[in-house]
Amino acid sequence: MNASCSDNTWKQYRSTLTKWQNFCSTEINPWKPTIENILSFLVLLFKNGLGYVAINSARSALSTLLAPIEGYSIGTHPLVIRFVKGVGRLRPPKCRYNNTWDASAILKFFVSWDCNEQLNLMNLSMKLVALLALCSGQRVQTLSSIKLNEIVFNDTGVKIYISSQLKTSKPGVGTVLTFNVFSESKLCVVCCLRCYIERTKCLRSTQYLLMATRPKYDRASVQTVSNWLKKVLSLADIDVSHYKSHSFRHSSTSKALDLGVSTDVIYRAAGWSENSKVFSKFYCRPIVKEGQFSDAMLHSVSL
Fold first, then answer.
1. Contacts (Cβ under 8 Å, ≥6 apart) of 288
2. Fold (CATH) for 2-90
3. pLDDT at position 266, please?
4. Residue 71: enclosing H or E segment and its boundaries?
5. What is the pTM of this model?
6. Strands (E), the chain
């Protein structure tokens, strides 16, 4: 039962449970509430400024931890569903970004760098994670979970079979990343990956692909990988006060759609189900192309 949720989910649920226990105090049995108690608690969260996402998370927590009420789990009780729908209308979830940066900016930046063999370990590490992120559309968690024994090179490129449990993992269905050899070696994920593995072979103390750049050279944490991606954004003159490491997922998937890649392919690559609305609601964003308006005016002379 405990394994049915990830550690991060339980951590999030504990916060809700603490608030719930404080709300109940001595007048309400926290393990046998009425539907009125549940709704009053959710109203309190709303009055304290919480929005749709936070209140929906609280609903999930209570539904997981408490017994059904009136024959319904708390999360599926008609009154709770209607209440959360009302919160969604009054305080709809906001997208983090209204637009996204152009992935071409990162690729052009890497073309200006030396070849892979001449890069220091820090720069090689940053380049690899950035190329992996852009060419897969995957989360940082996915990239940090890659193991050496799950990397299989072939004549056309490389396949990476990820067995670790991820946020989007489903029972019996693993995550497979596929990268083909690219003619421009400076932008080839396969070439960069081969070079990185060879460079770190005598240093590493972990079977995970991405490793720290300092002794003890153990596994690079999710936070470390995020910092590398953010550093790449900064070096490529992309506003890191606004765009964070997760914006690679927005940029890569939006760029793929802009280039004519079908949504089915994008969904499979990024790990979304075919019926998911996450991409259209939160990730598909207009690509910012600085100077596009003025360039159009100047180029109109030749029309």
1. 99, 100, 101, 102
2. DNA polymerase; domain 1 (1.10.150)
3. 79
4. none
5. 0.73
6. 100-101, 151-153, 157-162, 175-180, 287-288
Question: Can you tell me the distance from the alpha carbon of 227 to that of 251, in angstroms, rounded to the nearest whole number?
Answer: 17
2-90 shares its CATH topology with 100-288: no
**What sign does the dihedral 30-33-37-43 (CA atoms) show?**
positive
Tell me the two tokens of residue 51.
Answer: 């929005």
DSSP state of 283: I
Residue pLDDT, tens place only, 51-101: 988 999 999 999 998 999 999 999 999 999 999 999 999 988 776 767 788
**Residue appearing with tokens 């990730």:** 283
CB atoms within 10 A of CB 172: 5
- Look up the CATH architecture of domain 100-288: Orthogonal Bundle (1.10)
- Tell me the two tokens of residue 177: 């990343």
Residue carrying structure tokens 């996204």: 100
Domain ranges of the chain: 2-90, 100-288
User: Using alpha carbons only, how large is the chain's radius of gyration in Å?
Assistant: 23
- Give the C-alpha separation, 196 to 124, whole Å: 7
